[in-house]
Structure formats: C-alpha cells, structure tokens
Design a protein that fits this description.
Layout lengths: L1 H16 L16 E6 L2 E5 L5 E5 L4 E4 L7 H11 L4 E5 L5 H4 L2 H6 L3 E5 H9 L1 E2 L6 E2 L10 E3 L4 E5 L2 E8 L7 E6 L4 E9 L13 H14 L5 E6 L5 H23 L4 H7 L3 H7 L8 H11 L5
Parallel strand pairs: 4-5, 5-6, 6-9, 13-14
Antiparallel strand pairs: 1-2, 2-3, 3-4, 7-8, 10-11, 11-12, 12-13
The site of one zinc ion has 9 residues, from helix 3 and strand 14.
Length: 305
C-alpha cells in the first residue's frame, strides 16, 4: 500500500514538473530553502526545482523563477529574511513547472509575472512532453505572464536594480530567457545550463544547436568574476560554463553525424556515442539520465529539418 502511494505521488510530481530535468520525490514538507549571497544585494535560492535568483532594489524585489507551488510559503519566508520589501517582478526563464509553479501565488501577493510570449502561449494551451507523453494542463490565469514580449530583448527595473532579459531561440524550449544583472555581474541561465546533462524539451521547440548558441552568448557576456546561476545544480563560474559548452558541442556534433547518416534512434542508442561523457555528466535523475539525454538530443534534430 505504501509503495502504491509513493508511486502515485511520484506520478503527480512528474506532472507538476512537466518536463523538469530533476523531477524527484515530492515531499515538499522536507525541502529547505538555501540562500547564497552573491553580493550587491543579489541572492541565489535553492530548494527543489529550478534555482531562483533574487535582486533587491530600494523599493522592491525582482525574482527569477518560482519553483513548485507548494514551496511558495517557504520561498516567500526565505526572501523575507533577505528583505521586507515587496516582490515587484517575477521573471520566468521558461514554462516548465519546476520554474513557474509558484507564479499564481506570487502574483496574488502582488508580483507582476514577466516572460517571453512563447511561455504565455504554452501555459495557456497546456503542453505535452515529446518523449514521455506527459501532459501539463492549461495554467490558471493568475499563473500566466502578463508582461510579455515577442521580438528582441526586454528589461525590468525595480528600485535601481536592472534585469536585462535575453531570449534564446529554440534552445531548452522555444521560450527561454536568460537574465543578467549588470550591477552584480550575476547571470541566471534557466535550464539552458545544468551541471549535468540537461533536459532538452524538443517536443516544445528545444534544439541542441540552440543550447550551444545560447551558451556561446553567455561566454561572451561573462568574465572570470561572473556568478552564474544555472537552471539546476550548484552556482557556476565561466570555466564551468566553458566545460559545459564543450561537452554540448561535442554531443551535438557526434549525434548530428549519426542522425544525418540516417541512423534510427535505436541504432544510435546501441552505438553508445556518449559513453566517455556519461560518467561525468550523466549523474542526474529523471530526464537527465544518459539514455534519456541521448534520446532527447537525437529527437531534437527533427526541429532542425
Ligand atoms: Zn528545470
Ligand atoms: Zn526546464
């Protein structure tokens, strides 16, 4: 009976996570929010789901991503320890449930939800994961971004703090945004960067070429002092980013060659073209495991045709 309950809960977590890279056991009551001071009134928050970035201005707060809905109270409490000011803007890096789960509750608290228009479109319509077939139903209206843009870049300001928003075309999804806080030299990447193999949501516009191009933009923006908040995993440096880039470019080149030769997904899996990389990068749970990653990369080339 207990096993059945856990299995049922795990299914719920996957649904909540949507195509989350790190869907894990969903006992949110045990999650603790860890706050890391990045300097200049800017912070990284880790709990369960995508990493959160918080920037405190003189009259309000900008936050990037909101993890899962049940963690809202804990995240809110962790931010209140940093500053008593209101959260004015909540920026979404993409539509996945482990990054937008807290949207509705933070919106009800008074935050304006900001995101690329493709996030709004996917949240309103509901989505299906290309690999697992998992469906996420349409989001409630309070959760959907109301401050959106479609072409080019955007910007959010609160109490002297500036968040520069840059859309990366067809990378982890079709609606990814990375956020740069120039006064703190902090770069939040969303799920285009992970410390393991990343999830690649090809069923919703993701491509590995787009991820490599996105990381090349980060490398141009970052210097050796830049603090990089990845979508999942520990705070990163430019050197970490370079290593991740080189891995992803290698993966792209190897799998693209096989795809272009007309090899089927099963043939490519049997050839184990990433075997030498798996030990270092394949440690993630769920959608970041070596087989799933390879399947996602292979299928993402369909979006290039
Ligand atoms: Zn994520
Ligand atoms: Zn994601």
């Amino acid at each position: 009976m207990k096993q059945i309950t856990i299995a049922a809960l795990a299914g719920t977590a996957l649904l909540l996570a949507g195509a989350a890279a790190n869907a894990q056991a969903p006992d949110f009551s045990k999650v603790e929010i860890k706050t890391t001071d990045l300097g200049n009134k800017t912070y990284m928050l880790e709990g369960q789901g995508g990493n959160i970035t918080v920037a405190v201005g003189t009259d309000g707060i900008i936050m990037v991503d909101s993890q899962f809905a049940p963690l809202h109270d804990k995240i809110k409490a962790a931010i209140a320890k940093i500053s008593p000011l209101p959260i004015k803007y909540l920026i979404n890096t993409h539509y996945h449930g482990d990054h937008v789960g807290g949207n509705a509750a933070f919106h009800k608290d008074g935050a304006t939800i900001v995101g690329h228009d493709n996030i709004r479109v996917r949240m309103v319509a509901g989505t299906t994961n290309g690999l697992t077939g998992n469906k996420v139903p349409p989001a409630e209206p309070d959760a959907v971004p109301t401050q959106t843009w479609l072409v080019g870049d955007s910007k959010v300001e609160a109490g002297g703090r500036v968040a520069q928003l840059y859309h990366t075309v067809n990378s982890h999804t079709d609606g990814d945004t990375w956020v740069y806080f120039p006064d703190a030299n902090v770069l939040a990447t969303g799920d285009t960067v992970s410390r393991n193999y990343p999830n690649l949501d090809w069923g919703n516009g993701g491509t590995i070429d787009g991820v490599v191009l996105a990381v090349e933009r980060y490398l141009k923006t970052a210097n050796d002092n830049t603090k990089i908040v990845p979508g999942h995993g520990a705070l990163a440096t430019k050197a970490n980013l370079q290593e991740y880039h080189d891995m992803m470019a290698t993966v792209r080149d190897r799998v693209k060659k096989l795809y272009d030769e007309g090899k089927t997904e099963e043939q490519v899996l049997a050839m184990k073209p990433l075997a030498d990389l798996d030990a270092k990068w394949g440690a993630a749970q769920g959608l970041g495991t070596p087989t799933t990653f390879l399947r996602n990369v292979y299928n993402s080339f369909r979006n290039h045709d």
